[in-house]
Amino acid sequence: MVFWFYLVTCVAAGLFGLVQPTLAIDPLIVQLNQFGPTVGVLAVLLLWRRWRPPLATRFGLSRPVLVRLGVLVVLAVVIFAGFVGITGLAGVSRHGVLPGQLPYPFWLILAAQLIGACGEEFGWRCFLQPYLRARFGVVSSGTLVGLLWGVWHVQVFGRGLVFTAGFLAMAVALSIMLAVLQERSRDGVLIIAGGFHMLVNIGMLLLTGDSDGAAVQVSLAAACVLTVCGVLLVAARRGIALTGVVGGDRA
Question: How is 65-112 classified by DSSP, letter by letter?
């Protein structure tokens, strides 16, 4: 199941990447390969027609969903405040940009980034996370999804070992945060995960600009790791079980 989803996701993302230049869509607005995971979910549903995976697709702005949306905004602020602090203390050079310096209206970039992020998260967090959560604990399932999500960004492997390690650490940390946020509820997962993903992408765009060196990536990864440690501590104190299986439908 996971292999089939991941294979189709990777192939679809590769094809989208080939098509994007011919459509003249600037990757700054949206990257079409972000919709690869959605195609992966559709492939699973097509192959296993008589079985329905535990998709977290219920949408609604209930009070718990609004609270989680508020939490993810706080997490994004903490991550990037930590990133700025770490780069400052370590003397890491970065070159940020202001919204007005971008070649497109900022509202357009925000909207397109949210759509693209939701295209990804429909696969990673609405399908794969609840599917693996039925078999592993919160941290374990979040880590597995984070590793698959990180490795899926194959382009990072061409930037050196340190950059790649930093990127994978960041992906795992962000994935665990989302796993904790969607624990005990499948409502609003797409908007929560997509919103958080969009905020991280926008924060990286504004604070790093064209700074894509290994030191910048490691600094961002360190900020994410420190933040997820705080999230896990708070979750444990609130009685959220970080280990153990919740059960669910199996193929």
Answer: HHHHHHHHHHHHHHHHHHHHHHHHHHT---B---GGGSSS-HHHHHHH
Q: What is the CA radius of gyration of the chain?
A: 18
88 — alpha (psi -120 to 50), left (phi > 0) or beta?
alpha
pLDDT number for residue 53? 64
Gap between the Cα atoms of 32 and 229, Å rounded: 32
Q: Which structure tokens are listed for 46?
A: 């097509």
Q: Pull the structure tokens for residue 213.
A: 């060196």
The count of residues in the chain is: 251
For residues 69-81, average pLDDT: 95
Phi, psi at 12, each rounded to 5°: -65, -40
Residue-level pLDDT at 49: 73
Dist CA 2 CA 31 (whole Å): 23
Between CA 153 and CA 194, with CA 250 as vertex, the angle to 5 degrees is 35
* pLDDT reported for residue 249: 46
Are 176 and 193 a contacting pair, CB within 8 Å? no
| 138 contacts 245 by C-beta, under 8 angstroms | no
CA–CA distance, 117 with 161 (Å, rounded to integer): 26
Whole-angstrom Cα distance, residue 44 to residue 32? 20
Any idea what the Cα angle at residue 225 is, between residues 97 and 64, rounded to 5°? Answer: 85
State pTM to two decimals: 0.91
> How far apart, in whole angstroms, are the C-alpha atoms of residue 225 and residue 66?
25
Token reading at 208: 């790093």
Distance CA 2, CA 10 (A): 12
